[in-house]
Structure formats: structure tokens, C-alpha cells
């Protein structure tokens, strides 16, 4: 089993490094590889993924 590394980016997304399966609200599944950025700020228009909106909102966290 592959190890997955998770990093909290300062004032940004949660970075998941490794292959992972993401089940979304509608039940669809994405297979993500390498680095996947998940929104922590709540402002993304592409949840659960980060789309860079945290920069516009000056997210702190
Ligand atoms: S953390 Fe990047 S858009 Fe929310």
C-alpha cells in the first residue's frame, strides 16, 4: 500500500501527495494522482478541490 503524505499549506489548501480516490457529494469518483489540493478556506468554486480563491480572500489558517 502506498503511503500518502498530507501537508497543510499555510494560508492555503490541504495537499495530498499520492494516489487517492475521492468520492464527491454526487457519488462520482475521481482518482487523483501525485499532488491534489483540497480547499480549506471554503471559497473554492471547484470543491472539494482548491481553485486558488484563497489568495483572493486572503485566507489565513
Ligand atoms: S484553499 Fe484554495 S480555494 Fe480554498
Automatic annotation (TrEMBL):
Entry annotated with the keyword Metal-binding: yes
Domain Iron-binding zinc finger CDGSH type positions: 24-60
Keywords: 2Fe-2S, Iron, Iron-sulfur, Metal-binding
Name this protein carries in UniProt: CDGSH iron-sulfur domain-containing protein
Organism encoding this protein: Aureibaculum flavum
Amino acid at each position: 500500500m502506498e503511503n500518502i503524505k498530507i501537508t497543510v499549506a499555510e494560508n492555503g489548501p490541504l495537499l495530498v501527495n499520492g494516489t487517492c480516490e475521492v468520492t464527491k457529494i454526487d457519488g462520482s469518483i475521481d482518482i487523483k494522482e501525485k499532488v491534489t489540493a483540497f480547499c480549506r478556506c471554503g471559497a473554492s468554486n471547484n470543491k472539494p478541490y482548491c481553485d486558488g480563491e484563497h489568495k483572493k480572500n486572503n485566507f489565513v489558517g
